[in-house]
Design brief:
This protein is an all-alpha fold. The chain has one domain. It is built from 11 helices and no strands. It is elongated. It starts with 5 loop residues before the first helix and ends with a helix.
C-alpha cells in the first residue's frame, strides 16, 4: 500500500474548532478563578469576628482574582483579534493553540498560589512564569501564521502584521520586568499586569 506524501498530510483546516474550544476553555477558567476565595463558614470559630472584617480580610484573594481576570480577558481579546485574521489552520497551529490553552488552564492554580503566598517570591515567579509562557506562545503563533502569509489572507496589510507582532510582545516584556521586580518585592512585580488593558488602548489610539 502506498503511503500519502508528507505534503498531502499537511492538512489545511478551518479555524472553527480552534475558536470553539478556546472560547469554552476561557469561559471555564474565568469561572474557576472565584475558587481562590476562602468560603466563610458561619459555624466556624471565627463567627465572633464581624462579617465585614472577615470579608475585608480576603482582600489579597480579591486583588489577585481581579488581576487574573484582567489577564485572562486580555489573552481572550488577543486570541479573538488574531483569529480574526487567521482564517486557516494546520497541525502546528493546532498544537500551538493547545499549548497556549494548557498554560491558560494553569492560571487559576498559579493565582491561588499567589493568593496564599503573596509575599513569597517563588509564588510570584511561578505566577509570572505562567503568564510569560502564554505570552510567548501567542507571539510565536502570530509569527508562524503570518510568515509567508501561510494562514492569513495574501492581501493582508503588512502594517497590520507588524503591529500585532509588536503588541504581542507586551505580555512577555511585562513578565520579564515583573520577574526581575519580584526578586526584590513580590507583590509589586505581579501588580504590573494591571497595565495590560491600558497599554493596548493607548497604542490603538495612536495608530
Amino acid at each position: 500500500m502506498r503511503l500519502p506524501s508528507a505534503k498531502k498530510l499537511h492538512l489545511v483546516l478551518s479555524t472553527r474548532r480552534i475558536e470553539a474550544l478556546s472560547d469554552g476553555v476561557f469561559a471555564i477558567v474565568m469561572t474557576l478563578l472565584i475558587l481562590s476565595f476562602n468560603i466563610i463558614d458561619p459555624t466556624s470559630a471565627e463567627l465572633q469576628q464581624p462579617l465585614a472584617e472577615r470579608i475585608t480580610s480576603q482582600w489579597p484573594a480579591f486583588l489577585h482574582f481581579v488581576e487574573s481576570f484582567v489577564i485572562l480577558a486580555y489573552f481572550w481579546v488577543k486570541h479573538h483579534q488574531q483569529f480574526h485574521f487567521i482564517n486557516k489552520s494546520d497541525q502546528r497551529i493546532l498544537w500551538l493553540n493547545l499549548a497556549g490553552l494548557m498554560f491558560i488552564c494553569m492560571i487559576p492554580f498559579s493565582t491561588t498560589v499567589m493568593t496564599d503566598y503573596g509575599n513569597d517570591k517563588i509564588a510570584a515567579l511561578f505566577f509570572e512564569g505562567n503568564m510569560l509562557a502564554v505570552g510567548l506562545i501567542y507571539h510565536y503563533e502570530w509569527i508562524y501564521a503570518t510568515n509567508k502569509r501561510r494562514l492569513v489572507d495574501k492581501e493582508l496589510d503588512k502594517s497590520i502584521i507588524e503591529f500585532y507582532k509588536k503588541i504581542n510582545l507586551l505580555v512577555p516584556i511585562i513578565s520579564v520586568v515583573a520577574i526581575i521586580v519580584s526578586i526584590f518585592y513580590a507583590r509589586l512585580g505581579t501588580g504590573l499586569y494591571f497595565l495590560l488593558p491600558a497599554i493596548p488602548i493607548f497604542a490603538f489610539r495612536r495608530r
